[in-house]
Amino acid sequence: MRAWEREAPGPVEEGVFAFPLGRYLVLLEGVGPEGEARLKELALEIQGRLQAFWEKAQHVSALKELAYSLSHDLRTPLTANLLNLRLALQGAYGPLDEAFRQALANGVAANEALLRLADNLLELARFALSGREPEAVPLKALAEEVAGALGPLFAARGLTLAVEGEEAWALGRRDALARAVQHLLENALEHAPPGSRVCVRLEAWDGVVRLGVEDEGPGVPEALLPHLFRRPVREGRGGLGLYLTRRILEAHGGRVGYERREGRTVFYLELEEVRHASPRVPG
Questions:
Q1: Beta strands in the chain (DSSP E)
Q2: Interatomic CA distance for residues 113 and 117, integer angstroms
Q3: C-alpha distance from residue 209 to each of 56, 144, 199 (Å)
Q4: How is residue 53 annotated by DSSP?
Q5: Which candidate in 15, 48, 67, 196 could, as Cys together with 125 as Cys, close a disulfide (CB 3.0–4.6 Å)?
Q6: Over the stretch 233-282, which tens digit does the pLDDT of each residue have?
Q7: Do strands 16-21 and 24-29 pair parallel, antiparallel, or not at all (unpaired)?
Q8: Which residues on neighbouring strands pair with residue 127, listed in sequence order?
């Protein structure tokens, strides 16, 4: 049998030991009889670990696809249910007593939370499955676009929303970075006191660009800080949105952080700055 036709580890000729490794065949020369048994044992262990790794990779890929499918399919019934609940709350199906009105309001809030969760899961799955090439993204223009879309929600709570600083560019996926900015703004929307000011501030120094979202909220309790971007938490600031933001920034070679500055809460993104503003940068 020729060496490249082998499917199991073992000697191919005197002093030569071979074992398959995926699409390749490893040949070791100068192997005596006393080393063949140990090499065969080692080769089988390597093959077993590679097979286990492959199976795990396939399992992870399947889970990503499942998360995408579930979150995508959940949006339609959740959106329809939310519309019906809102119409009922507005009296479209008849008069409401106070207890029923409160029950509907609670249902609307719960449905909105489920819809946000489905959106976050969908974005997480899209991000994990995407192979899109990066581009030079103008972060101030991006922040203004996201702030414009969320503006009515801030106005409804009596919040002032502003974007300040000079334009700065970073290399990345525009849709993913927009989602990260949206998460930070939604976090501020939830925790900023009514009637206060929220500011998106762009700063750049030493090749780093920072996009910070500042609000006048109370900040994060010290006990929650170790878990802030690592996993969803039940109380206070945190949740899937901040976790997803961390994942997005790590994939871009950047980081997300939190600090208190002059009595204000600041959640920020930091990325490597792109010095030229070309519309497209080769990946």
A1: 10-13, 16-21, 24-29, 135-138, 160-164, 169-172, 197-205, 208-215, 255-261, 264-274
A2: 6
A3: 37, 16, 16
A4: H
A5: 67
A6: 444 445 667 888 888 888 888 999 999 988 899 999 999 998 765 444 43
A7: antiparallel
A8: none
Show Cβ contacts of residue 225 under 8 Å, excluding neighbours closer than 6 positions. 258
Q: Which two tokens stand for residue 54?
A: 């492959």
User: Which residue type occupies 104?
Assistant: L
Q: How far apart are CA 205 and CA 265, in angstroms?
A: 21
* Tokens representing residue 242 in the block: 């901040």
The pTM for the full model equals 0.56
Gap between the terminal Cα atoms of the chain: 46
Distances (CA, A) of 182 to 79, 82, 139: 20, 21, 12
Q: Which residues contact 179 (CB under 8 A, 6 or more apart)?
A: 123, 127, 244, 245, 248
